[in-house]
Amino acid sequence: MKEHLFLLSRDCLSLARAEVERSLETKGFLKKNKLIISVNDSSVNDSSVNDSSNNHLSIVDLSNLSLGYTREVSEILFSEKELKLLLGAKNYDWGSLIKNSYSIEFEKGIFDEETKKVFFKIVWDSLNKLKKPVVDLKKADTKIKLYSDGEKIFVTKNLWTNSEKFEERKAHNRLYNHPTALHPKLARAMINLAGSSSKIKKIADPFCGSGGILIEGALMNKKMIGIDIDKVQIIRAKENLKSLNLKSEVSLGDALDFCEEVDAIISDLPYGKNSKVNNIDNTLRNFFNKITTCTKILVIGSEEKMNLPRLIGFEWVIVEEFSIYIHKTMTKKIFVLELVNKNN
Ligand SMILES: C[S@@+](CC[C@H](N)C(=O)[O-])C[C@H]1O[C@@H](n2cnc3c(N)ncnc32)[C@H](O)[C@@H]1O
Fold first, then answer.
1. Any idea where the domains of the chain sit in the sequence?
2. Class level of CATH domain 2-161
3. How does pLDDT run across 281-303, given as a tens digit for each residue?
């Protein structure tokens, strides 16, 4: 059995956790912002590990991770109570783990400088059989990271660091901005909430606006279909996609006429005066009723005061619900819905 530590963004822990658990189809154990996921060695091969000395089995293809709210993923080498950490470090076989350059990083606020120094020295001294161990703080082959969940210290080997440039893709940096545009990190998480990447390949956003969800989906190599009733928004979406060299089907139309079969519908619903809809409640009631023939999974963003449970009818069931603070006057709700008879 192996354990992985997912270091979650603190922005919205429940959403960060669900993003990992739903996209990897597994359950973990959350303490502070660390999600620990145990895996049997019989699961899928970890293709990110190409060092034959480290030929272990892991949970997913980590080279394919595309999470929004996870900052890092590590393999747990060992864990100890703080008092026993140095003893644990002395007993660990660092020589089998570190073959070339390495670095050691401590989560902010854990340990005093003296303990860190002793830890560094234990590792360095145990590598005396290596001809020339190199400490490389920028691009080490083996990045050792230490985290605390308040009870235990986790000594880990970093496997994945989130290098997505979500801030650069924020709407105000896009060619065409719009006040209702979603933060790219949230759009990414909504796509992952739909389910595992091997199952969710074709996605529609029938209220696509300036294309925030289409962009993140296209970056994840999904087949994306976008529709909006506003021709200016369609131009914005097309130009935004083009400026990033991304492909998606985008067309002018009414979400109520959408009838193509897709793996998931992921959409940020119209709200407020930007929505250009006269009777939003009626439009949405019809929408939820009609799309039962197109998909079995919905991931929906809505403004906080929208009473979604009242609009979805009897065919959909809410399986997850999150509130995310966006700014002073806006808290968003994210819902994951499944078709009641989704196995039929
Ligand atoms: C909240 S915005 C979507 C924002 C989008 N996620 C983004 O990142 O830009 C909702 C969009 O729904 C569109 N809309 C409203 N009623 C519609 C309808 N009946 N069919 C299709 N689009 C509609 C609006 O024009 C608006 O662009």
1. 2-161, 171-339
2. alpha beta
3. 899 999 999 999 999 999 999 99
For residue 290, what are its two tokens?
């009609």
Which residue's CA lies nearest to atom 24 of ligand 1?
275
Ligand 1, pocket-test mutation among 173, 234, 275, 285, most atoms within 8 A of CB: 275
What's the gap in Å between 336 CA and the centre of ligand 1? 19
Interacting residues of 220 by C-beta distance below 8 A, sequence separation 6+: 66, 188, 191, 197
pLDDT digits (tens, 9 = 90+) for 151-199: 999 999 999 999 999 988 887 776 666 667 789 999 999 999 999 998 9
The minimum-distance atom of ligand 1 relative to the CA of 271 is: 1
Task: Please indicate whether residue 240, judged by its CB atom, sits closer than 6 Å to ligand 1.
Answer: no
Residue 100 is encoded by which pair of tokens?
């070339």
DSSP 45: B
Q: Is 270 in the pocket of ligand 1 (CB under 6 A)?
A: yes
Of the candidates 205, 253, 255, the one whose C-alpha atom is nearest the C-alpha of residue 231 is 253
Half-sphere exposure (Cβ direction) of 223: Cα atoms closer than 13 Å: 9
Question: How far apart, in whole angstroms, are the C-alpha atoms of residue 269 and residue 256?
Answer: 13
Architecture per CATH, domain 171-339, reads as 3-Layer(aba) Sandwich (3.40)
Q: What is the pTM of this model?
A: 0.90
Q: In this structure, which residue's CA is closest to atom 12 in ligand 1?
A: 207
**Radius of gyration over alpha carbons of the chain, in Å?**
23
User: pLDDT digits over 20-42, tens only?
Assistant: 999 999 999 999 999 999 876 44
Distances (CA, A) of 184 to 38, 54, 158, 187: 29, 35, 25, 5
